[in-house]
Amino acid sequence: MPQIQLKKQSSEHSPTLNTILMVEKVLEKDKDLLSVAEIKRRLPKKIMHKTLLQVLDYLQNSGKILIGTKGVLWVYTDSKELEAKMKKGLQV
User: Fold this and answer.
1) For residues 27 and 38, is the Cβ–Cβ distance under 8 A?
2) Domain regions of the chain by residue span
3) Which helix (H) or strand (E) element contains residue 66?
4) What are phi and psi of 50, to 5 degrees?
5) What whole-number distance in Å separates Cα of residue 6 and Cα of residue 57?
6) Which spans in 1-92 are helix H?
7) Residue 33 neighbours by CB under 8 Å, 6+ apart
8) 63-76: b or e for each residue (b if 16 or more CB lie within 10 Å)?
9) What's the rounded Cα separation, in Å, for the pair 23 and 52?
10) Does domain 17-88 have CATH number 1.10.10.410?
11) What's the confidence (pLDDT) of residue 10?
12) Is a pLDDT exceeding 80 seen at residue 72?
């Protein structure tokens, strides 16, 4: 399994949970390939470019998005089947 290494963040500023959720909502809603500039335009509130890049880095490391040369793509899917099996399964 490949080792994911998170970049060390400076203590200057970190994105808030609200900011992360706001970016997630934009990406999940569209499910199309979006450029970073297009993501910034679609956000309901302005955020700094560096902050957006930190959020995108986090989302990529968590397996929710893919970042390519042509843009950013939402890839995370919520597995309803897995959720149903967990409800029926034996709790240990």
Assistant:
1) no
2) 17-88
3) strand 65-67
4) -60, -40
5) 9
6) 17-30, 36-42, 49-61, 80-88
7) 68, 70, 71, 72, 73
8) ebbeeeeeebebee
9) 8
10) no
11) 55
12) yes
pLDDT digits (tens, 9 = 90+) for 22-69: 999 999 998 889 999 999 999 999 999 999 999 999 999 999 999 999
How far apart CA 59 and CA 36 sit, in angstroms, is 13
The owner of tokens 């297009």 is 38
User: pLDDT grade, residue 87 (50/70/90)?
Assistant: confident
pLDDT of amino acid 53: 96
Token pair belonging to 7: 């970049």
pTM of the predicted structure, to 2 decimals: 0.73
State the number of CA atoms in the 13 A half-sphere of 84 facing the CB. Answer: 3
Which token pair is 74? 């939402």
